[in-house]
């Protein structure tokens, strides 16, 4: 256990550059998504069990604290997805993408794309709390 | 003494490791479409508040595109879980070194993954039929539809 | 005390030690002791190349190489040894290639070669491309390749073990004592033979290209045990060290066309060596730089000059000299060529000087570089103990620590790497033969007692002078007084000062009293070795009243073949020294005046 | 200029746990960190322990964590470090004393990848094995490695799992895999194809960012991964 803590601590305190932070975030986001996914499967499973119990769960989903978690999830998935593409490019075309200059640039692109996807999603997530609706929503 | 330290020997080529590495990339590419679109669709295009029991059962899975969505959700479920579970396996191999502990945690991961897959398939195949039906008969129904 | 038994022990894991280990281990059981991990040895810093008359790019013969070596060494070279070296070099370089050494290649796939200081076509007197190279990290590649081969052959290494004493009993070597740095334990190695390959001792000087670890431990131990050291007055100052830091800028830069420029913007080497100019032999150039600086023609009147390898400068002088490619077109160099052929040099300049060699000239000054003298040996690495060439059975040496003598008064660039591999191999083979013929001699009683006494003395004091302060004073006085130019006055002064420092050393204080990785203790012990070598260097320099190669006396500016065509052999006797002489072996090449 | 060095000290002979030593030294802007450390060792505290030899970034002795990042102490200048400099031993290897770590596990991995040319044909008589400049170029980058361990000890995969063969060993393997004279490509790729081989690399790039020889390590690892996937070197 001590060694796990130590190696996690090392991972955080080392002053790496883009690649290091990208890796850390990729790992954390991947694990986070997995946890969320597990939860999500359980709640969807409840559809099969019955309407009441499923809707009780939905109520929990629509609560404000949970929205914060959902925002984390959204950010995590977008980031993980775009960064995953970066990793795939580096892996399959090392001669083109595997050097620190391109790598730093790519990380920035990943962050930009993540934000581009995240910002509308975040707005849509918090909107209902303030009784706002996106124009195209029909409920 | 500074004489030779033995190290773990390397050189047992591991087909599974290559396959899993490859699978992470392939499933990642698939998930890029499946998961990102799923989230964007649910949260921005549809809006989470639209998600109710009726909406899922009647519109998503039984609407005109019902079969499409069921296939989509099944693919998403399988890819995401296998991808995520394999990722988690990597992380476990990274941090948990004791043979016993490593095996125990990984076994737990596999069992949980299996259960989650079954649970997920169960819903996708059985809705809106009654939950008592087995997954198999649901599959037959789903395919026959 | 921990006991080991090997047929042979090799001390030092640079090029010479590894080459010996590789060959000896094929026949007998060897252990290699090194105070550094083998890949940290200073051979790894050698840049420019290894000389061998392969003739891959133009006509060349090993006899030409031998002549250049002898002339470069100002005729103090033992000519039989030089002939062996230059002849064997050809085969050994190919052998290194077969071992996997990644030499640069010619367009038709052969080992690429470049010109280097002092290497000539003996007929046209023009520079010849003889230095086989792997970019500017030839030494690195040699070290790596040899270490790789040793791993392949399962050579037993004792990494981070410091040699401290040689064990001699009944007139022959029976082993040695080493200190395990990690634990502070003493280890006694019982062996039939011990092979010294500990490299040079450039750390005697303040501005040096040498590593901190090059402190001359083995020769100092030999000296103390009463065995002679040969030609200690000859220490090479490489003309182009980075100003103040001493980090070496390879001759390869000048091989590629780089020129030396003084404060007036002149290419001053044209005056000192009209034919070879910037590719004249090292002693000639170091002296020229010193003279320019002394005449106030340093850059801005300071004590350095420029080495200029900017393409525009180089190409201008190519035209001026009428330099041609083999196909007859005028020779040209581009910025990309410099990056490609001298990547590490470019990197050093940017890192340490903030100077881009493609755009700016590099400030340089001569730097203490290479020990021509050392432990005397014959051409098979056997250690010689008197002026009549008697050997000490079981003692071997090769590489920079040894004096065969193939470098005479001044070593030619690329010849050290040749020396390492040729004599490392010959010595390794000869030693293996010897080990197969004899039995283990008995160890003396308490073999580690003398070493323990030395270490205990250093550890026992609770106050005193710091080793660092003494070392600094020694390096300063060696730089100032026993440097490129020497006079009786400077040398006498130096001797006094060194003796005073040796006196202070009796009181040196070691702060770290622990057993684990005690480098404080080892540095103090090494300082003792360096002070001994500093003293004999100054003494031999004072004794030799002529100027020859790397030894330039302002008060005796001429070479004096009548009185001084002989090797110095210095012996320690009690607290005093005795100097003897050994004739120079001359085969075909009669001494002539050296002009470049 | 006056700087403060915060050095992580630990002598298992007498310390229970690591502690931070603070030292003030006067340095020139162009001094190496190694010079500053020497000033401490030589004039303030002789017990400070570190490895060093060549003093110009070629021997690979003095890898350490400087201001949170792996560097060679002799290849970083004081002017680039600021007024307060923290120095720690490299991570992932057991500390012997102060800045000195046990390098044996690192070298054991190096030995494990068969770091020597394997070619069982008798070499040609009286000449070299030919190799075109283009073939030579393929592995040029990885021949530069000085085994300083900066890369391996900056790699999160290695910190997490010391069994990972590590970037330095892969760099060395690359040097032979892509050498046209070497005949053991399949065997080498098998070694690299181990579970603790190249697949543990998560393309973190910490190795590349700190390699003092500026070797593009991640690309070398990528080349090896690709060679395994393609079943050989193309
Ligand atoms: C910067 C530079 C550039 C050079 N360029 C060239 C060039 O281009 N061409 C050329 O021909 N020559 C060149 N030289 C010279 C050449 O590199 C050296 O002379 C040569 O490498 C010395 O090799 P060696 O094997 O004798 O010793 P080294 O490589 O110095 O090795 C000495 C070994 O002895 C060990 N050792 C020392 N003391 C002890 C002890 N007490 N106990 C245990 N082990 C000990 C060390 O650990 C090390 O392993 C250059 C030298 C320098 C400094
Ligand atoms: C959305 C598109 C996705 C892409 C493009 C993607 C891509 C990747 C890739 C390429 C890797 C390998 C990383 C490496 O080798 O360093 C990876 C790892 C991982 N992924 Fe994904 N992934 C996606 C979605 C997901 C989802 C939905 C989950 C969770 C269920 C997930 C969980 C993980 C985990 C846990 C890891 C291991 C992380 C690590 O080893 O540090 N990923 N992903
Ligand atoms: S690859 Fe670079 S960082 Fe790694 S050991 Fe080699 S030189 Fe050092
Ligand atoms: S830091 Fe490590 S994960 Fe790979 S890219 Fe470098 S080896
Ligand atoms: S001392 Fe040699 S690399 Fe720093």
Q: How would you summarize what this structure contains?
A:
The complex is a heterotetramer of chains A (139), B (145), C (596) and D (234). Chain C is an alpha/beta fold and 596 residues long.
List keywords for this structure.
heterotetramer; B: 145 residues; mainly alpha; 3 helical TM bundles of succinate and fumarate reductases; 5 helices; D: 234 residues; alpha+beta; five-stranded mixed sheet; two-stranded antiparallel sheet; 7 strands; binds iron/sulfur cluster; binds FE3-S4 cluster
What does this structure look like?
Helix content of chain A is 83%, strand content 0%. Chain A is an all-alpha fold and 139 residues long. Chain A has a single domain, classed as 3 helical TM bundles of succinate and fumarate reductases. In chain C, strands 1, 2, 6, 7, 8, 9, 16 and 17 form an 8-stranded mixed beta sheet that branches. In chain C, helix 1 (15-24) packs parallel to helix 4 and helix 14 packs parallel to helix 16. The mean pLDDT of chain C is 95. In chain D, helix 5 (167-177) runs antiparallel to helix 6 (185-192) and helix 5 crosses helix 8. Chain D has 8 helices and 7 strands; from the N terminus they run E-E-H-E-E-E-E-E-H-H-H-H-H-H-H. In chain D, strand 3 (63-66) and strand 4 form a beta hairpin. Chain D has helices spanning 33-43, 104-112, 133-138, 156-160, 167-177, 185-192, 206-210, 217-229; strands at residues 2-9, 19-26, 63-66, 69-72, 84-88, 95-97, 100-101. At the B-C interface, loops of B face strand 6 of C.
Alpha plus pi helix count of chain D = 8
Give the low-pLDDT segments of chain C. none
The share of residues in helices of chain D is 25-40%
Number of strands of chain D: 7
Main sheet overview of chain D? 5 strands, mixed
Mean pLDDT of chain D: 95
- Side-by-side strand order of the widest sheet of chain D: 2-1-5-3-4
In what range is the share of β-strand residues of chain C? 15-25%
Number of helical segments with 4 or more residues of chain C: 17
**Straight-line distance between termini of chain C:** 56 Å
Instruction: Outline the biggest β-sheet of chain C.
Output: 8 strands, mixed
Pair of chains with the largest interface and how many residues each contributes:
C-D, 58 and 61 residues
- SS-derived structural category of chain D: alpha+beta
Q: Order of SSEs of chain D, N→C? A: EEHEEEEEHHHHHHH
What is the secondary structure topology, with strand pairs?
The complex is a heterotetramer of chains A (139), B (145), C (596) and D (234).
Chain A: H1 2-13, H2 18-49, H3 51-61, H4 64-92, H5 94-97, H6 100-126
Helix pairs in contact in A: 2-3, 2-4, 4-6
Chain B: H1 15-46, H2 53-60, H3 66-95, H4 99-126, H5 135-144
Chain D: E1 2-9, E2 19-26, H1 33-43, E3 63-66, E4 69-72, E5 84-88, E6 95-97, E7 100-101, H2 104-112, H3 133-138, H4 156-160, H5 167-177, H6 185-192, H7 206-210, H8 217-229
Parallel strand pairs in D: 1-5
Antiparallel strand pairs in D: 1-2, 3-4, 3-5, 6-7
The complex binds flavin-adenine dinucleotide (FAD), protoporphyrin IX containing FE, iron/sulfur cluster (SF4), FE3-S4 cluster and FE2/S2 (inorganic) cluster.
């Amino acid at each position: 256990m001590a060694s796990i803590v130590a190696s996690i601590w090392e991972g955080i305190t080392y002053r790496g550059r883009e690649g290091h932070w990208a890796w850390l975030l990729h790992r954390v986001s991947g694990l986070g998504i997995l946890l969320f996914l597990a939860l999500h499967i359980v709640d969807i499973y409840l559809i099969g069990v019955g309407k009441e119990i499923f809707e009780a769960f939905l109520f929990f989903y629509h609560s404000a604290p949970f929205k914060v978690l959902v925002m984390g999830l959204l950010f995590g998935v977008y980031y993980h997805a775009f960064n995953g593409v970066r990793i795939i490019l580096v892996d399959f075309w090392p001669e083109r993408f595997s050097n620190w200059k391109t790598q730093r640039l790519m990380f920035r692109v990943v962050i930009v794309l993540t934000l581009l996807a995240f910002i509308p999603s975040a707005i849509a997530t918090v909107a209902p709390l303030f009784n706002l609706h996106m124009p195209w929503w029909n409920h | 003494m500074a004489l030779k330290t033995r190290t773990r020997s390397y050189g047992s080529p591991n087909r599974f490791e290559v396959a899993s590495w490859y699978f992470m990339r392939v499933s990642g590419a698939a998930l890029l479409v499946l998961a990102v679109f799923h989230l964007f669709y649910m949260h921005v295009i549809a809006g989470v508040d639209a998600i109710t029991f009726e909406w899922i059962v009647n519109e998503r899975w039984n609407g005109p595109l019902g079969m499409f969505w069921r296939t989509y959700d099944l693919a998403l479920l399988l890819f995401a879980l296998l991808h995520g579970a394999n990722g988690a396996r990597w992380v476990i191999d990274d941090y948990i070194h004791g043979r016993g502990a490593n095996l125990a945690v990984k076994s737990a991961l596999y069992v949980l993954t299996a259960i989650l897959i079954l649970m997920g398939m169960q819903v996708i195949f059985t809705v809106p039929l009654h939950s008592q039906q087995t997954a198999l008969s649901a599959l037959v129904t789903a395919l026959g539809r | 005390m921990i006991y080991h038994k090997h047929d042979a022990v090799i001390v030092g894991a640079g090029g010479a030690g590894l080459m010996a280990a590789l060959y000896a281990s094929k026949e007998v059981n060897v252990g290699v002791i090194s105070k550094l991990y083998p890949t940290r040895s200073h051979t790894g810093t050698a840049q420019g190349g290894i000389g061998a008359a392969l003739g891959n790019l133009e006509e060349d013969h090993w006899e030409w190489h031998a002549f250049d070596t002898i002339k470069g060494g100002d005729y103090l070279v033992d000519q039989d040894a030089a002939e062996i070296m230059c002849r064997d070099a050809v085969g050994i370089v190919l052998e290194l290639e077969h071992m996997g050494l990644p030499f640069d290649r010619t367009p038709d796939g052969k080992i690429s070669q470049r010109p280097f200081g002092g290497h000539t076509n003996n007929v046209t007197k023009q520079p010849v491309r003889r230095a086989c190279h792997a970019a500017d990290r030839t030494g690195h590649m040699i070290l790596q390749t040899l270490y790789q081969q040793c791993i392949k052959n399962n050579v037993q290494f004792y990494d981070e073990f410091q040699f401290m004493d040689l064990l001699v009993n009944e007139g022959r070597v029976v082993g040695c004592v080493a200190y395990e740095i990690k634990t502070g334990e003493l280890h006694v190695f019982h062996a039939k033979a011990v092979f010294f390959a500990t490299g040079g001792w450039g750390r005697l000087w303040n501005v040096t290209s040498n590593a901190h670890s090059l402190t001359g431990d083995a020769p100092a131990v030999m000296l103390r045990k009463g065995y002679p050291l040969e030609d200690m007055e000859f220490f090479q100052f490489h003309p182009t060290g980075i100003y103040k830091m001493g980090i070496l800028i390879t001759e390869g830069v000048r091989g590629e066309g780089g020129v030396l420029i003084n404060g007036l913007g002149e290419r001053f080497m044209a005056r000192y060596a009209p034919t070879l100019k910037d590719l004249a032999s090292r002693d000639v150039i170091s002296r020229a730089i010193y003279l320019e600086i002394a005449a106030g023609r340093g850059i801005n009147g300071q004590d350095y000059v420029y080495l200029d390898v900017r393409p525009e400068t180089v190409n201008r002088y190519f035209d001026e000299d009428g330099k041609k490619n083999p196909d007859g077109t005028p020779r040209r160099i581009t910025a990309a060529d410099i990056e490609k052929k001298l990547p590490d040099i470019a990197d050093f300049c940017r890192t340490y000087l903030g100077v881009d060699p493609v755009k700016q000239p590099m400030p340089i000054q001569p730097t203490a570089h290479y020990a021509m003298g050392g432990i005397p040996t014959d051409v098979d690495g056997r250690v010689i103990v008197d002026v009549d060439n008697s050997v000490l059975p079981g003692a071997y040496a090769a590489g920079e620590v040894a004096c065969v003598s193939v470098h005479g008064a001044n070593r030619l660039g690329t010849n050290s790497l040749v020396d390492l591999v040729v004599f490392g191999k010959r010595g390794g083979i000869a030693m293996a033969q010897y080990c197969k013929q004899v039995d283990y001699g008995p160890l003396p009683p308490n073999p580690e007692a003398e070493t323990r006494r030395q270490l205990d003395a250093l550890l026992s004091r609770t106050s005193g002078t710091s080793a660092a302060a003494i070392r600094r004073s020694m390096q300063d006085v060696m730089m100032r007084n026993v440097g490129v130019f020497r006079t009786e006055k400077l040398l006498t002064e130096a001797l006094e000062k060194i003796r005073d420092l040796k006196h202070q050393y009796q009181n040196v204080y070691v702060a770290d009293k622990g057993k684990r990785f005690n480098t404080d203790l080892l540095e103090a012990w090494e300082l003792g070795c360096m002070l001994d070598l500093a003293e004999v260097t100054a003494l031999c320099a004072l004794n030799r009243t002529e100027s020859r190669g790397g030894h330039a006396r302002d008060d005796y500016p001429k070479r004096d073949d009548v009185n001084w065509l002989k090797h110095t052999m210095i012996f320690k006797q009690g607290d005093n020294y005795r100097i003897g002489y050994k004739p120079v072996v001359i085969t075909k090449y009669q001494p002539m005046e050296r002009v470049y | 200029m006056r700087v403060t060095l915060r050095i992580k000290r630990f002598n298992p002979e007498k310390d229970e746990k690591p502690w931070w030593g603070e030292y003030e030294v006067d340095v020139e802007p162009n001094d190496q960190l190694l010079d500053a450390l020497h000033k401490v060792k030589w004039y303030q505290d002789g017990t400070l322990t570190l490895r060093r030899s060549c003093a110009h970034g070629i021997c690979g002795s003095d890898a350490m964590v400087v201001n949170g990042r792996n560097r060679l102490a002799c290849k970083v200048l004081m002017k680039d470090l600021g007024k307060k400099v923290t120095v720690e031993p490299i991570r992932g290897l057991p500390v012997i004393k102060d800045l000195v770590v046990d390098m044996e596990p690192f070298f054991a991995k190096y030995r494990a990848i068969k770091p020597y040319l394997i070619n069982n044909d008798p070499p040609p008589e009286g000449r070299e094995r030919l190799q075109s400049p283009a073939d030579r170029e393929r592995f040029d980058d990885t021949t530069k490695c000085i085994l300083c361990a900066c890369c391996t000890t900056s790699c999160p995969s290695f910190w997490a799992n010391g069994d990972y063969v590590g970037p330095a060993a892969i760099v060395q393997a690359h040097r032979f895999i892509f050498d046209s004279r070497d005949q053991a490509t399949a065997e080498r790729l098998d070694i690299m194809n181990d579970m603790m081989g190249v697949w543990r690399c998560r393309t973190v790039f910490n190795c590349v960012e700190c390699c003092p020889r500026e070797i593009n390590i991640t690309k070398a690892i990528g080349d090896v991964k690709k060679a395994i996937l393609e079943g050989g070197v193309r």
